[in-house]
Design a protein that fits this description.
177 residues; 5 helices; 79% helix; mainly alpha
């Protein structure tokens, strides 16, 4: 369990790049992709360790906590994959749109950016389903905070995606849903 904890802490350090990514114009997507790949490796290793732990001597509360940790790991792995792929594609196309010398090329990049947002929205909905299946009140107190933090992050990211898609629809003159 100590090794899994160390891997989770390492993954959190890699995920910290998301907190420093405020201005899309100055973001280097290669750095984000590298940090997400590293976090994904750490999370996958941690999940493998957690899945190897026998439930035989665990109380019901400890089992529920272990199940929640596994869900957190899986959701974080899914998040890393999504950020490394679709989010970086979104940022890349937004950057290219802002640098495009003609309007047609800019619009094409904005359409690709919106497509990446829609893919992210689909994926984040699946993550929400996984995390919403866990009863927070049944969790051990030592992981409730982490779990609630991940849950709120996913919910807020989902809301942001809805807003970004709506903005892209306005820019592209596409009627909303």
């Amino acid at each position: 369990m100590t090794e899994a904890t160390a891997l989770l802490e390492s993954a959190c350090a890699h995920l910290e790049i998301l907190n420093t990514t405020q201005d899309f114009d100055s973001v280097y997507v290669g750095s984000i992709r590298a940090e997400m790949a590293a976090a994904e490796v750490d999370l996958t290793e941690a999940l493998t360790i957690l899945e190897s732990i026998s439930y035989e001597y665990l109380s019901l509360e400890e089992r529920e906590g272990m199940d929640a940790l596994k869900v957190i790991c899986q959701v974080d792995i899914d998040l890393c994959e999504m950020v490394r792929g679709d989010f970086c594609d979104f940022v890349d196309h937004c950057q290219k749109a802002s640098l495009a010398t003609d309007g047609g090329a800019a619009i094409d990049h904005l359409r690709e950016a919106k497509t990446a947002l829609v893919r992210m929205k689909d994926k984040i909905s699946l993550m929400r389903t996984k995390i919403d299946a866990i009863d927070v009140d049944a969790l051990p107190s030592d992981i409730k905070g982490d779990f609630v933090g991940v849950k709120i992050f996913i919910q807020e990211f989902d809301k942001s995606l809805e807003e970004w898609i709506a903005m892209m629809d306005q820019v592209l003159n596409v009627p909303g849903p």
